[in-house]
Design goal:
By secondary structure, the protein is an alpha/beta fold. The chain is about 40% helix and about 10% strand. The protein has an eight-stranded mixed beta sheet, with helices on both faces. Strands 6-7 form a two-stranded parallel ribbon. Strand 9 and strand 10 form a beta hairpin. It is globular. The protein binds iron/sulfur cluster (2 copies).
Length: about 350
Amino acid sequence: MILSSSKVWSLFKRSLKSKRTYHAQWMVTRRCNYRCRGCSVWTDQDSSELSAEEIKRGLEILRDLGVLEIVFSGGNPLVREDIGEVLEYASRHFVTTIYDNGSMAVERIDDLRNVDFVAISIDTLDEKKNDYLKGVKGSWRRAMDAVFKLKEEGIHVGVSPTISQFNIHEIIDFTRYFIEREVPVWYCLYWYDYPFKDGMFSIGKKVDEYMITDRKALADVCSTLKRMKRENGFIYITDKTLDAVRHLALTGERTWKCKALRNFLVVDHRGRVAGCHSREPVASIFDLPEVWDSPRFDELRRRYSECTNCAYLCYIFYSVHVGFSGIIEILRDQWKNANLLIREANPPAAMSR
Ligand code: SF4
Ligand code: SF4
């Protein structure tokens, strides 16, 4: 599936109105059917969650604030019976991505036909290793079958490995395997949650064998992916992100300031909003319009911009790409056919900003 020209045009128009936030991650459920070793979610389950109607109301609020892209995750968002309704609504207004651990995408395939991207998490081509990482036997086989079944059905599906010390030396071969089969790859970076007081919730759990100790190997992966991208459009990570991670790996220095609550925000299963999942909830999604431009939020933004406590790749990615020109950069850099679509939609200022 590719973005329709009318949607690109609508995103562009909204971006002109919006002041800041462009990306939202919505963890629509805390429930998960897997037991991944590097994850805290399954050890801290909570079945209370917003209804589909409430989520749709929240999506309208995000749309009016200028959010252009929504990523649905969890838990596993596909455990929700009503996820199809949520996705159908979200994909009318946003670039919409949903994550699955590979266990439910086939079963829920009809719910996925409206979304722009489906990300299936697979970490290695080694079946046993992958099942070990996921804590569930048979998870690798199910995930691989899901990827190729969805692809066969014309759904824009890709794989999303989490790069850790455990698989860092396999990432290039892993990438090659999928891109040769025209399956896009986009990446997460293993991280664990710094214990902030009153953080919204925890995702990454500290696991020694995942901690990236071979920083040179990480830098080499970034350089190699950057080279490979020139030959193959199925590697979905921007040059800017790769450069930022490479620099961090080699020097320990950040070339970006965190843009939590500025370029991105996170919403949890109860509708609480935070700059990122590790930080404290600062509003309910339903109160967001009243507080969004408040001095309190400006102070939080300032505070988060000084924070260096995590290196989750999605937050780096959202921090290094700014505004609509950032979205264009992402589209141009990552998504095949995007230039064509943008030309078709013909927003003249889009290319010059
Ligand atoms: S990483 Fe994802 S799939 Fe694995 S246990 Fe955590 S929420 Fe579930
Ligand atoms: S660096 Fe940003 S995203 Fe990471 S913990 Fe700090 S505020 Fe959150």
